[in-house]
Amino acid sequence: MSHIVTVQEAVTAFEEWLEPTAAELDAIDAEMPVILADIELLDAHIVTLDRTPTELDERRLRRARRRALAARLELTNRGITVAGVGA
Question: pLDDT tens, 11-59?
Fold first, then answer.
């Protein structure tokens, strides 16, 4: 019979590295308008999953797509590069 051994010490040894760095938090803050626009677009898609989209649904989808694209364009035009974050 093999015994199960806890690895708590091995896991908590890297606990400080599990928290996001200040640079990562700044990158998230910079991308927050894009994240919120994508959430709005996803919500608009979810509403139309189980029914035929009405004219109002189609307008909501178009508006959400435009907001998502505008947010991405804004972020791209700012040209924010954060050292050590992303690819």
Answer: 555 666 678 888 989 999 999 999 999 999 999 999 999 999 999 999 9
79: left (phi over 0), alpha (psi -120 to 50) or beta: left
Q: Which residue has the tokens 């091995």?
A: 10
Predicted confidence (pLDDT) per residue in 46-64, tens digit: 999 999 999 999 999 999 9
65 C-beta neighbours (distance < 10 Å), count:
15
44 Cβ neighbours under 8 A, 6+ residues apart: 57, 60, 61, 64
Rama region for 86: left / alpha / beta (φ>0; ψ in -120 to 50; rest): left
Q: Which residues of 46-59 are buried (b: 16+ CB within 10 A; e: fewer)?
A: eeeeeeeeeeeeee
